[in-house]
Amino acid sequence: MHIELSKDKRYYSIGEVAKAFDVNASLIRFWDNEFDILKPKKNAKGNRMFTPEDVTNLQLIFHLVKERGFTLEGAKTHLKEGQKKTLDKFDIIRKLETIRTQLTNIKNQL
Fold first, then answer.
1. Residue 5: what pLDDT?
2. Backbone φ, ψ for residue 11 (5° rounding)
3. Residue 12: helix, strand or coil by DSSP?
4. Which distant-in-sequence residues (6+ apart) come within 8 Å of 36 by Cβ?
5. Which pLDDT tens digits describe the chain residue by residue (110 residues)?
6. Contact assessment for residue 36 and residue 44, using Cβ atoms and an 8 Å cutoff
7. Is 36 helix (H, G, I), strand (E, B) or coil?
8. CB–CB of 35/61 below 8 Å?
9. For residue 37, what is the DSSP state?
10. Of 22, 24, 40, 103, which has the most beta carbons under 10 Å away?
């Protein structure tokens, strides 16, 4: 799971976000209702429009719930107690994954 955040794009539709995470839009809506750190805007039709910050928070929620196996309550507690530390560790993990992918690509080109 990885979504490229464009510097020019201010909002992402729920469909774009769901596709990037390879989950149903209903799961994204559910997480939006469950996690206070998500604050998508709603357009005139009532559709959720996620900011880059929301997408980053969704990546963190996805990591905790889907990749690390946290319960929803466990993820909520973890986020409340150590959000800064969790975000720092999450950023490090993502950067290392990117480096690993780049090194694998270089290796394959040799």
1. 63
2. -140, 150
3. strand
4. none
5. 556 666 677 899 999 999 989 999 999 999 999 999 899 999 899 899 999 989 988 988 998 999 899 999 999 988 887 666 666 777 777 788 889 999 999 989 98
6. no
7. coil
8. yes
9. T
10. 40
Q: What is the pLDDT of residue 31?
A: 96
Two tokens, residue 4: 């490229």
> Are 34 and 72 spatial neighbours (Cβ–Cβ below 8 Å)?
yes
- The two three-digit tokens of residue 65, written as one number: 């719930």
Phi (first) and psi of residue 41, to 5 degrees: -80, 160
Stated pTM of the model: 0.68
**Cβ neighbours of residue 97 under 8 Å, at least 6 residues apart?**
2
Alpha-carbon dihedral of residues 61, 54, 14, 19, nearest 10 degrees? -50
DSSP string, 40-100: -EE-TT--EEE-HHHHHHHHHHHIIIIIS---HHHHHHHHHHHHHHHHHHHHHHHHHHHHH
Burial of 104 per CB tally in 10 Å (0-12, 13-18, 19+): exposed
